[in-house]
Amino acid sequence: MDYAIQVKNLTKSYKDFTLDNISLDLPCGTVMGLIGENGAGKSTFINSLLNIVNAQYDRGIILGYDLKTQEKLIKEDLAVIFSDSHYDLSFTPLFVGKMLSKIYKNWNEKKYLDYLKRFGLPEKKRLKKFSTGMRVKLEFAAALSHEPKLLILDEATSGLDPVVRDEILDILREFTEEEDHAVLISSHITSDLDKIADYIAYIHEGKLRFVKTYDELQNDYGILNCGQELFDSLNQEDIAAYKKEAYSYRVLIKNKLKFRKVFCDVSIENASIEDIMLFYIKGEKVR
Question: Please, what are the domains in the chain?
């Protein structure tokens, strides 16, 4: 199995929104960040992968299993973490572990207790007395203790402080050190993706705009600040999007290395994932 997720032409239509022909592959051993504004279709895509919503597709293979006919096998090797805890707040971590041990064949009680200790989570304390960060840590402890091969996170780190988020990122790095493991993470905190993502998939208005490696984004994209004369001299093929300001232009260049060979004396800033997304959403396109 070389890919954790293989999807071709996935479509889900609602009355006022369509997730339109999404095709992407997530290689094993990697982290893919899923970005896009609210309402772009990220959660619809994830819910389609989980069969929470009934989408249409030409191909849906998760962990080598067919999404239509082998859902039970997929879910044995799949862990999903959302932004909100789905456990009853009257539960304790010990009760959560006991419950999950009856559900998953590969449940590892020792690993679970080790995670509780690592995260500083009291085993017998009720979840209603946990902070938001503690509840998210419990979600990770539970998710990782049934030996999954694929982690799907839907805004799972939103609302957490930077220290907790950094701890979670360390766990995801450890997880993907196993070559048959992979992570799909949807997040508005693009600075986290800058630290961990191997691939970035960008969804805008229900369409997949691109899937690129993080290294491609760093090598290809840059931000140029220039005046009217230089802007007018630019090759339109070099411009992904631009913003006109009072006395200048900010331009997202999409083939930075080639551009620098032509304009060797012009300064180009590096573009973060957030920069690229905002230019695509709010910037003007060359006609």
Answer: 3-215 (3.40.50.300), 221-282 (no CATH)
